[in-house]
Amino acid sequence: MADTDGSELAEPDRGLVLVSNRGPVEHMLDSEGRRVTRRGAGGLVTALSDLAGLTDAVWVCNAITAEDRAIAREHEHGAVRIDDGERRYRVRLVDHDPAEYQRFYSIIANPMLWFVQHYLWDLSNVPDITANELEAFDKGYAPVNERLADAVAEEVARSGGAARVMLHDYHLYLVPALVRDRCPDAFLHHFIHIPWPQPDAWRVLPARLRDPMLRGLLANDVVAFHTERYARNFLLTCQELLDLPVSFRDLSVRVGSHTLAARWYPISIDAAALEAEAASEGVAEAHDRLLNMRREYLILRVDRTDLSKNILRGFKAFRQLLRHHPELTGRVTFLALLQPSRQDVDEYIEYLEKIRRLVADINLEHGNADWQPIDLRIEDSFPQTVAAYKLFDVLVVNPVFDGMNLVAKEGMLINEHDGVLVLSEHAGVHAELGAFSISVHPFDIEAQADALWQGLTMEADERRARREACVEVIRSNDIRRWLQEQLNDMAALEAEPDPTAAPTPDEGRDRVGT
Ligand code: F6P
What we know:
Number of domains: 2
Bound molecules: 6-O-phosphono-beta-D-fructofuranose
Distance between the termini: 35 Å
Number of strands: 18
Oligomer: single chain
């Protein structure tokens, strides 16, 4: 494995299999019945596209649309070359019964696991674990994971048995153990892009659901996260819920004769690609349109309509700002660019409805015939988002909990107004950008209102210095470095002989807690 400075990826020297729920592209029919591709949604897809497009990796993912499923069948469930206009990938689409996939995605992965890992359950009321949830696990999550594992095992065998497998996220917790059974020589690396909470959060799930998932994960060689805190929480979970010996010094857990490493790599963005997008014609047009609506001050948020994003409290804080500072009437706009998300899950449908109602109330309370304080746009337009990044004075990123949050990195890189970042202390990105932002507690609405005011009124020199510091961090750890460091560490771990089961001296001490 060649070492690089992170500017370009070195070609991996073993077979590589990527595995995730969503793949690099989704297929659908256009209005004339022609098959077209759309780039897969989300930060994870962007992050892996480089690796898959530049190497001969095969990307195993779920067939999500009807056209994806048709392609999987046409190619007899083998890998197919797909072109997204920019890159070519080898993709293996795994086809499922739609009812099974719905139970897997819309009951177990979301909301069940997502809410556990973001501490979102309102425990005096929900969740109810009923026959419906148990069935969703047995007849949804489990068979979808099994079919993915079958496909991965075949691809590993095809590449000689010793491939690296890079799994992604909470949709796949059963896959590693299933692959390990059949591929003892594969190197299994699982990246979890959402927070790993403290052990008690997992107690919401009965052992019947929880244990197979945790045990499934333990078959990996590496489990990776965005922050050190999540890696340590993972070890605590292994210690408290599974009674396994862990070392907080080495960040490892012993499972029989096997050592699993917990690691952390803060994900980032493709800075060069985003800057190229920012210079595009589409962004210029969107920029002109936004410039026309811009008042003296622009506050921005960009999010999926996810409960973890804390969109309602952000608006309540803005309402407090307007109540405390009537002099802002007519001079400030809160532009909210929200992308509808998971609209097949009840909690998400209700959340979007609450957002619309709260915005209507605030606009009624403070707006007038000439000015609406909140400009809510529920749509998905990347050129418009990038244009808004250029223009904001304050960017609000106030999640309840968030694995990383790439909006903070994208916005601060592209901004041309020396904009200020108002950032939740519970976002993973806070570990990198917190020092240069105005930190807020996501439940403290008054503090968020004060932070908005502080951001709008901050001296120009200070705003500039803070933004430049953010940009330096973002540029020095971009997406290629994120990937390359993982590949380098994998190579180093593969080269290490697995130590024997004898506990290292600090393990006894760690077990009582550090
Ligand atoms: O990491 C969390 C994640 O699963 C990402 O892969 C993705 O960007 C985001 O959530 C969107 O989720 P979904 O695939 O459910 O739309």
